[in-house]
Amino acid sequence: MNHTTEATSWSVAVDRAACIGTGVCVSTSPEHLEIRDGKAAARATETGPAQYLLDAADMCPMAAITVTETATGRVLAPEE
Ligand code: SF4
């Protein structure tokens, strides 16, 4: 068995040039995202796993939010 003591960390990136400020993502995942100067921004660039953060990235009409596994860089959302 492979037990790891390191908590999984996710990275959140918002492409503010692509964001059109709908606020959909903020309603879905207010813990992780906020509107700053009319566009979405990550409250923190790294966070623990949360399904609703993936939902927010999947819902964005501009695919402006990318969630990756910090350790590997694997893209978790949006889905291709
Ligand atoms: S859902 Fe997408 S376009 Fe809308 S505010 Fe969030 S990042 Fe911007």
Automatic annotation (TrEMBL):
One of its GO terms (molecular function) is iron ion binding. InterPro entries: 3Fe4S_ferredoxin (IPR001080), 4Fe4S_Fe-S-bd (IPR017896). Keywords: Electron transport, Iron, Iron-sulfur, Metal-binding, Transport. It comes from the Bacteria. Residues 10-38 form the 4Fe-4S ferredoxin-type domain. Ferredoxins are iron-sulfur proteins that transfer electrons in a wide variety of metabolic reactions. This is Ferredoxin. It comes from Actinosynnema mirum (strain ATCC 29888 / DSM 43827 / JCM 3225 / NBRC 14064 / NCIMB 13271 / NRRL B-12336 / IMRU 3971 / 101).
